[in-house]
Amino acid sequence: MRRPERLVHVCAGLVVCVSLTEVLREGLADRGIALAFAALIVVGEVTRWTGARVREAAPLGAAGALSYALLGADAGAATRHGAAQVVAIVFAAALLGCVPHTVRGLPVLDHLARRMLCTGFAAVCFQPLYNQGVFGAWDGPAYALLLLALLALTALCDAVLAAALKHFRTGWPFGPILRDELRALLGIGSAVCATGAVMALAVAVVGLWALPVFCVPLLLTQLSFRRYAAVRTTYRQTIASLARATEIAGYTPAGHAHRVAALSRAVGRDLGLTGRDLTVLEYAALMHDIGQLSLVDPVPAGATAALPAAEQRRIALLGGAVVRQTGVDGEVAVVVERQADPYLRQPVAARIVRAVNAYEEKARDAGPGGPLTALEELRLATAGDYAPEVVEALGRVLSRERLTLPQAG
């Protein structure tokens, strides 16, 4: 395998093939129940989020798949489907629900692989034991706690799988990615698990009429997250527009702020930053040059790294003052203000912005061999100007991702 993530896709494919073969041989049990859950999963997949930075893109589809995997009865009558049928139905429904996203050119393989493997895990843990009567003595709160425990274990497995896929695809350190995934479980992940357990319990008592009733809370949650994501997107677009002010005014080259922000975020990930810290770093990198708007005479090519230390600090303080007036998070202003301080007194985000900005300026002005020359200059200056761990992380990112500076324009 040339790419490690292909192994995950192959494992998911094998699970699906075995399950489909078993269903074709044994036939489909409880067709009405299967169709009801399939319809729920299709709706959940069709309405999945696209383009938003959320952990679970299709919470309704995930809840439906998990509740079907942990379903043991329908209105008091024992169900007859097994783990293989659960995987087959979820695969067919998820595949159908992903068609609109595939037509739009959006990636779905990782999403489908995670869905199949995690649903299969939950079904294998529950269905054989339930059908053998192992859980017959479990009732009331004990049975509900059992379902929640299985769902929590499944969610942990999904978090590990999602982190591994992202690590394989991007080369980012596995530990910080896993911490991000586990932290996200406290948000939409807990809502998905709770809804999946409640739907399985409710269908067991009152039948399939419980599905639309208990989907409503998760639909409302999904709507709220969608609005939150839209607000976050607008907020970031506003910051990006502010960052372009220096380019429009002719103080910095076109695209400089976005190149620094992209490379800073990659370096931050390499150093283990996650979640909110990465967001603050990205916003600060986008706005790191905004203090130049207060200058009467522009710095040639916006290259502040070559200025005297006192002038760099003055521009940084001016930039922090501008950021505070825009209403952007105060942590972003702190990073902008301290980007020109001696690195031993800087927060990690300020160290990253300082080093990446210097690299971009030096590489841009050094000709064809600019990237290597700039990185070497930064390494020679780690004794006083740039944090050694940041420069080494920058070198790893450039080597791993083969990043070069995009052409301005």
Description:
By secondary structure, the protein is mainly alpha-helical. Helix content is 71%, strand content 1%. It has 16 helices and two strands. It has a two-stranded antiparallel sheet with strand order 1-2. Strand 1 and strand 2 form a beta hairpin. Helix 1 (5-26) packs across helix 5 and helix 3 (59-69) crosses helix 7 (174-206). The longest helix is centred in the middle third of the chain and has 34 residues, at 210-243. The radius of gyration is 26 Å and the shape is elongated.
Strand content: under 5%
Kindly provide the radius of gyration, computed on alpha-carbon positions and rounded to a whole number of angstroms. Answer: 26 Å
Helix content: over 70%
* Number of DSSP E strands: 2
Principal-axis shape: elongated
**End-to-end distance:** 38 Å
Main-sheet strand order equals 1-2
Q: Summarize the helix and strand pattern as letters.
A: HHHEEHHHHHHHHHHHHH
Structural class: mainly alpha
Largest sheet: 2 strands, antiparallel
Residue-averaged pLDDT: 84
- Unreliable residue stretches: 403-409
Per DSSP, the total helix count is: 16
